[in-house]
Amino acid sequence: MQVQSVAARRLFLLYLAIFCGVASSVSAQPIDRADDAEVDQLLVLVASRDPSRVRQELERLGASATPRLAEHVRGKDTNKRIMAIVCLQFCWSDVARDALIEVIPEADTQSRKLAFQVLGRQETGKALADALAELTESRDKRVAGPAIQYALRAYPDKDLLKRAMSDRRLIAYTSEALPRYYGQDLSEPTRKLVSRAKVDERINLIIALIHQQDESEQTRKLIASNLTRGPAMLHDRAAEYFRYHGTTEELPALEAAMQREREVYAKASIQAAIDAISKRAERFKEPGTAPKLEDTDDPVQSYRQAYEVLGADYTQANRSAALRVLADTEPYEPYWRFGQVQPDEALTARVNNRLILQILSSGYKLRGLNSIGTRGLQRNEGIDMPDDLTTVSLIAPVRNYFDPKRRSYGIHIGNNGGPFSNRHHMGDDVAWDLEHETIVAIGDGIVRRVII
Fold this sequence. Notes:
The protein contains 21 helices and four strands.
């Protein structure tokens, strides 16, 4: 019934909001079956929107409530299924996991979405990827797509990604994962997806081609066609590609795009691409001969060897060798592989050395960069600093951060059930999840101090 569907949708949003703040470390008890009536009463408490009592009961019953809740998950009542899924995450067990995996192929949209979210929260790493393995092979893209998405988030699997890329119905899911994977073996299937993808998907695919170190003529022509098509963010990311992989052949197209562009962020990206291409053309003048790089299983050693060769002799051949090292040394982005918020010393070394090689191969100088997240500070650097430095106007550092209706900064967060639901978020991390987002100076001036 439509009424039930609307109620389920409202409950779905409510439950996410309620339980985001509830600790999931409910003390597990031996899996002795709780009385069915007690568990059914628990669903009544959920429906009555009394989270404190629900939590008390969950703590009391623990995993003993799981079998009855699993029955409700497999049942016909949509509302009870959603409430049971919410409760299962706080009395988790293999029984709970298997119930969700079983019901996903036949469940309604809201139940399926919530089931994937709970699975993603309770199971991690390869365990989650293995649990979802059968669902990734479903012929129903509503099942296979999210299963692939959650599996790739949990545990990188290049073979799964390649298989999913062959199904064009799954572009929305594979395009999200692609930027985190390296290797020119992905470039051809990525190119095939670009022309068929929606704007947001195409942006991710362009970023993936940057990370795949694909600077082939075919790819450059494909990206150039996006400099003036679609929204400004697409122009921005297309120019960003040329910042890393553009040649002097693309300068006319970039200059023409600069003349047509009206959005300041896209214009900044296009100008950065023009400048980067000019730097590379000046720096890598000599063709040179292919260097002999030693084979090593240590990514840090591979990166160091490549940037030492490149730094000693800026030739086109050495740059091409550096790009191959960037493309093939690791199959996927290190942070993504380990899922660490605070990287350990080994991971930091890999990221730092990769970053140095990326900077040098792009035509830039290191300018004192010594480790990730830090930069040596230099006072004034010999610049005569004016006393009355002023600016006529200010601009937001990233797009979509200024709300013209409110005449204020901040991004509005919709009703997503999270901590910023229906609020304006003023944090400096508003573009943290937008890869290669262009950031501009907020006004005219001279940079006195830099802290990265």
